[in-house]
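Dear colleague,

As promised, here are the two records you asked about, laid out in our usual form so they can be pasted straight into your sheet.

NAME FIELD: protein one
SEQUENCE, THEN STRUCTURE:
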Amino acid sequence: LFIIAFYTYSMTRLLVPIILIYYLTVNRKQIIALPKKFILGLITLGIFLLLPFIINFFDPGGIFGPKGAVILSSSYTKSVFLGFRSYVLNSSVSFLGPLFFNRVIMVFYEYLRNILTALSPGFYFAYGSAVAGIGNIGQFYLVEILPLMVGIVTAYRQIRTGNRFYKMIAGWIILTVLSASLTVNPPYATRTFFIIVPMIIVISTGWITIMQFLIRKKVRLIIALTVISGIYLWHISYYLVSYYFRFPIVYANEWEARAKEMFDFLKENEGEVDKIVITKPEKSMYAFLLFYHQIPPQEVWTHLERYSTDPDGWSHGKKFGKYEFREIDWNEDNTKQTNAILVSEGGEYPEHQVVTKELFYPTKYTVFPLGQQILSMPETTKAYRIWRVIPLVKPAETNN
């Protein structure tokens, strides 16, 4: 199961080995008591299942993964450090730069800040992640902050008595936070998914402890359960409304909400043109093409052209069949001999006003106070602009 998890997500390449080592340490007495042939068989099976990863260890998809996601190698993180150091190096105390603000110290400082950010109560119980979140709800329900605190105290008491189960749960949480903090843009929702199971166990432990306390105080359990269930029902309703009705509108731009509509239009018209140019290759628009047009994987492996790997380790799609992913060259892509479709984001190339088709994101309402009045302003944003370039056909010559 650990090895299956190892292949699921890039962060597991770090998280799985250290959690496994920690669990082996916690349960070392029980493991030593196992038959040696059994242990040897497990090790052999583990090495066999890891062969695909070992073979591709140094490939871009191997141990390194996208370098831009890790603070040790991210160009964004480096730029922040260098930007700060520039103020020191261009001052009268420039000697402090290499001494106090070198790369090792600054990375360690950033790592500590990431850890504190990853422990933010607001992230877990109020507003969630700015990246891959829905914007107005945490990773857990707000009501669960009380049983979490009670559960932490209860789990700590169990750990002090030598309870191995709660030792494993505590290690699971701590090691996940320490691993996720090595990445950029913390707290990142998908990189903390691994903390869900142990957190639910701690929260459940807290609820059980609270219920036992209420029973001892002669509080009728049915009343407590009714109140708690009502609070949970409200939280669930708030989440469902936020996710299914608010989120698709407010975050339509971030999630390319009109990509399917755009690629459906292109599929209907691609037979009439020689090429289709789509801007913003860094947004991996080719992935939407492959998905919505249901391109078989074997065709992708043989026909997809990619750009060379960028400094952060990403390799974006460049060309697939008639589709080209690059900026529009208006001198070359809009000539009298061109037979093409040009696609840009809604805010690009405002000087080219005449378009064949425009796609819009859902209408969003911005509500704000003006004195004692509350105003609601509808906002409609362009998602994509599409130009159909038709070649000029010369009239047939006559004998006149």
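NAME FIELD: protein two
SEQUENCE, THEN STRUCTURE:
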Amino acid sequence: VVDEMKNCFSLIKFQLENKDITSVKMRGNNNEILAGWVNVSYNSGNPTWEVDGNRGEKEITITPGSNVSHSSTNAFFAVDDTDNDNNPVDGVYYIAVLPQTLASGLTLEIEKTGGLVATRTINSSITLNRSKIKEFPAPIDHGLEFKKGNIVLDCTDASKFRYGNPATALVERTNSIYNPNSGGTVLAPFDFWLEGYEDYKFNGQVTQWTGSNPPCLSGVSSSNGTPKIKLPTIDGYVLASVKVTYSHSTSDRTISVTDGTNTFASCTMKRGDAASTLDLTHYSFTLSSDDRYLTYSSELGAKFILTYIPESEYPGPEITTDIVINCENAAAFRYNNGTGEVTLPARGSALGTSFNFWLQGSSYTFEGDVTYWSNGNCLCTATRTPIKVPTITGYALKEVRFTYQHTTKDVTYYVTDNSGYTSDENLTAHALGHVNGITRTAGGTIDVSSAVSSTDDRYLIAVGEFNVRMILTYKVK
């Protein structure tokens, strides 16, 4: 017998000041279950709840401007409220949620007309009491910057895929490769898509796997066709990542993402392994196409999530290759008009005015008062005379490797960020790195890869006659 009706849930109340908001999505920062199908116990007037199987929902999405009936993905809410005089107030909404404490707060993802998205994150603990209203007094969209949001295609439940007729499941559950139209082996790839995302087409030879709940998407093995699925191409967006959350097989399966020629990333998984995310935002090759393919070894049986980001936010290729400038042959240096060699004054003669010079065939410019030494073909300057090495956009000097020293004397070589450090005291105090007294044939290396400096300029200075062969290596910043 129920003596008194009880509210089982909590309400979150918020305001929107923008009139063109199309949806608000809420999720807990610890991935808590906020709604869905639950079993409620009256519990002597103190109702409690528990999730019905796996039917809890970790996100709630509402669409302001219309009343929406309750389902597993939508909650009751009102589009207006009343002020102190009982007059309706536009832009006030309620979301019904399961009572609990969100220890790390929550995140609200707000979308407006044109697919522009902004996010409001609250990082402090929020207690949602049963039969109480948690109110956010200020409009949750106030002061937010709206921009194109990500598109996420959740492919973790293969039963949500459709083909041809959007109301019909992709294939019947079967362990055999199945033609969705006539049965039998799949002889040609066909288009398919997730329910509700008809504009985002996949293409491939696939079947739904029966051995898991929910089922995995499974593609043919090489013995039955081409083990490849073409992923959707979305105008204005770029596929940024593929998160493989589950593999049905008890044996290792390698899953890769390619552009048809090059492989962005791969992972090897079997049943029970942790999810693996393939990052496609950094690559060191030239793209062969804008298409993206999911390829796999043997038969695919996997669940995965695709995330697309706006083209404007795509970082493009990550250049990971060092730039190496080999200065071991001083006769290859050119100056001024690009054809003259740096000439050799008589030993002990005064050096001229500083000038630009470079290696034959290279656009990277050095600067300094230099000569090359004829008896060893080394780059040479007078003591404490700086050589400015090339400054390369997007790169920083990583190391200077001396491969040979012509003189038999001990010479200390420095790397600095300023040509004014020409006294021994300044060099010792301000050098970014140095190497002492290298021998004629053994060489030595100055590592400046971790040097902290306010400028990208780098100079080589020697205490003693600078008379060496060297190799410069630059790394990506």
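A couple of things worth noting about protein two: Residues 66-80, 165-180 have pLDDT under 50 and may be disordered. The first strand starts at residue 10 and ends at 15.

Best,
R.
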